[in-house]
Structure formats: structure tokens, C-alpha cells
Fold each of these.
Amino acid sequence: MNKPIKKIPIQDLLASMLKDSISAVQTAGAFYRYIGEQIRNGFIRNKFIKFSEEESRKHKNILNDRLKEVGKEPLISAPDAPDANKETESYSLIGALHLAEEFARKIIKMSKKEMKKDKNHHQIYDEIIKDEKKYYKAIKKEEDYPRQE
């Protein structure tokens, strides 16, 4: 005899997804900052520092606000996200670019899943997806065309 599968309330499922996304944007932000600190070209360096700030503040705040709306406590710091000064420094610039690219793809995928579950809040996920695509494009450009300095 099969036991009935217990359904997880949508708020709990969404909260879990949002917490995972917060961890991902915090991690991506750490890598963007590290990349920015490694690049000597002022324009490109500032672009990656800006990406880091957008991930660390804008996206994290958007996701935390939604987390509060579903009745959960916001995350000040995601427990499994790396400390930018400890974790990222062990990567080469190319390695950090590859990981940042991976996180941009991951955040896009996670946001699309959240959008399906959170049907009335498409605009917040659309904004994050749009930004992540911009980051992904910039990362690919740096990977494909490293600048000679």
C-alpha cells in the first residue's frame, strides 16, 4: 500500500526557492567583485563592480522582499554563499569568469522556475532575468575577447 505523497504548501516551496536564489545571487556578486578587482581596464572593472553591487543589493533585496511577502524571515546572509575575500581569491580570472557565467545561467534558470510557481509576480523575476542576461553577455565578451593591457 502506497502512502499518499504529502504536498508542500506553495509558500514553503517558494520560500525555499527564494532562499536558494538569494544564495546564488550572493555568490555571483562575490565572483563579480573579484573579477572587477582583477581587471585593470577601468571601464570593464567598474562594470563588474556594478554587477556585484546589483547582485548584492538590488537582486538580494528584491528576493528578500518577496520572501517577506510569503511570510518568511529575510536572509541577511546566505549561509552557503562564499565570502568574497576567502573563496574567490583561490580562482584565476578565467576560472572566476567561468564560475560567474555558470551562476548567471543558474540564476536565470532558477528565476524562470520561480516565475512559474509565483504567477502574480512575474515582473520581479523578469527584471532579474534581464539583468542576468546582461551579465552573461558581458562575461562571454570578456572570455571571448580578453583585452591586452
Amino acid sequence: MTLRNRYGIEPTGTEFKLIDVNGLELGAFSTECAAREDLWRRQNEDALLDTAQLLVNVAVKGHILIHGTDRETALYWIRKALHWEPAIATSPATLKVADRG
């Protein structure tokens, strides 16, 4: 499904309703302009998510090829890497006394 057909705007009386491809109402707006702004925001967020999913899939496939793992294992390590925080270089003066051991 493309971004263009995920959402639609339906005028209903004095409102403009934003609906998704399944007919679910996502919001009602007093102007068409406001409805379009929300539609564009949602399309932008969808594009960000689509790109992130594509990049994760590429990373998973690469991990599988390099390490011979299965998809679940590759996802485990990629998720673990997402939460990894590199050690921050600090001067001894900024370390707590307990950390200076």
C-alpha cells in the first residue's frame, strides 16, 4: 500500500473527517485545510516508520548473512545494540569517589 491511499478526507456536513484505508475515522476537523495538515503529518510519520522498518530488515538480513543466525537471534542482537550506550570519556575530576577504584 502506498502512502497516497492510506488516508482519505470525507466532507460530512460542516466537518471534514480523516479516515484510513479501512474506513476508521481518525479525526474530524472544522476545515479541509486542518484535515489535510493532519493527513500530511500522518503520511510523514508513516514514511519515517517505513524507512526505519526497511533499515531494520536490511540490518537483520546482514546479521543473518554475516553470523549465520536466524531472524529471531539477529533481532535480539539488533535490539540489544539499540540500547547500548558507549562509555563516555570523563576526566577523573568528574568521577564519583566510588568510581575511582
Amino acid sequence: MNAKRRFLPIAVAIALTLPLPSVSNCWQFGVGSPFLLFEAPLYLQLSLPGEIGVDLRVSGLVDEGSLVVEFDGTPIDPEDLVPWEHGVSTLLEGVGDGQHRLEARADLWFLFMRFPLVAWTVFDAADRANADDCEILNNEECLLPFPSSRFSRAGG
């Protein structure tokens, strides 16, 4: 029994030094973790203003009651979040020109411990006069003809 008491502080110290699953870089998905991340819109995606679809992947270990999603600092009504197989989705309406930020926060409960999770992504909306005729590269330039093969690789 005495050996177990001596082992407990060592086990706790080891557990605290392990990397926590709360925040990591998920390149095209922005910042998140395997437990909470935005699948759409992609990080730095360029979209037309208007309606933007949002897909948030939420692990089964996440407490759904703690989930808060914000668009440009304004909370999205939880009733607007539609469940799907791997998370929730919604449609943002009336998105204007400029850079926008989506952020999600939730709690993950594991072994009676709470881990706060954060995920965020940033995307741009830009109104292009000829968006249907060209491939949008950024807010200033597009590539003609559309679709182009500029970013494709030669077959090998």
C-alpha cells in the first residue's frame, strides 16, 4: 500500500508532462484537434459573399452541451447547428466582403477530468465580377480560362 502512495505522485507528474489533446495545428483546417475542428470553410479559403457552409467535426467524447460556436465574435444559436454523422453544420447567411473568423469551444471529459478544447479557422469573402468565368486566386486576381490546369501535376 505504501508503494502505491509513492507511485501516485510520479504517475501524476508523468501525466501532466504529456501533451494534452486540446490544441494543435491542423494545417488546412485552421487550429483545432482531432476532437474538435472545422472541416469547412478551410483555413484562408476564398469564397464569394453570401452563404457559407460550415462543417464542424466533433468527437463523441466532447460534451455537446458545452459546445459554443462563434462567427466574428457573435455566438451562433445552438438550434442553428444541424447534427451530422461526425459533428454539426450550419449555413452562414449574409456574409460580407472581408476576412472572417469562426471559433468553437467545448469540453472533453476523459477519466473524470475536463479538457477545454478550442478550434478556429479564418476565411475571406470577396466579391468578384467574373467569378463564374475565372478561377479565383485572391481578392485581386483570377486565372482565365476557367477551369484551368495551372495547379495540376503532369501525369507520371
Amino acid sequence: MIAKLQTGAQEETSEVFSRNQENKNSYGERSMEHKDDGKAGSTFERDPLHHFAKRLSATKTLRDGHIILRMTGESGGNYCLRCEGSHATLSQEIPPGNHHVELIGDAKQLRPILEGRKDARVHFLAGGFRVKGNISYISDLAMELGILKQPI
């Protein structure tokens, strides 16, 4: 009886592990799309980053390409700001290849910075988040958005 229970528990653990592996992206992080499945009224649809994408669309500095946000922790996830023409849209699908910029850090640090509530320069210099790619481009965008007072 005990052996049968242990076997059942091992099978269940193996099944859960297998499902979690399927839901992870190439960085080993759980994908937000599996949490929400893109349903109307989902967390993604209400994400304040959509507002950031609209603000980004109003800038003159915006270039065609992608800005990737890799946020860990609660309310984190992987996002892509797809910039085409003078329009930026938020997506949870990260296209392969090179991107203009990747911002990497804890969501509790990055979200307030993108919303303009925290000083990006102080948090960047303190190691609160990392920037991969064209740092002068993201610095120029942040200056235009009022996120930075002086360039990095």
C-alpha cells in the first residue's frame, strides 16, 4: 500500500514538473501567456505597460525594432514593445534575434521606473536593473519621456 502511494506521488510530481517545464521560456522563466491565455479582461489586457507603450509612441526618438522587458518576481514576465513607424505596441511574444534594448530586473523596480515614479538613474547605477543593448538609445528615450533628467 505504501509503495503504491509513493509511486502515485512520484507520477504526480513528475507530471507537474513536466507541465512547468512546458510553460517555461528559453530563460527558464514562466511565461505570462500561460497564466492569462490572452482572454478578454485578463491581467495582460489590464497591464499598465500598455499605457507606457502609448507614451512611447508619442516620442520622436522611437526607432523601428523591439524593446524587451524581462521582469522577475511578482507581476513580472517577459514583454516586447514592438516599435514600427511611430507606434509601439505591447506583446508577450518575444521574437528571436537581436533587439535594440533589453531591460532586465525585478518588476518591483522596473514598473515604477517605467511609470515615472522612481528615479531610473539612481536605480540603474545602484544595480537595480540591467540594460543590454543600445544604452544611448534607451537613455535618449527615457530623457524624452521624462524618466531621466540627464542622460546615462
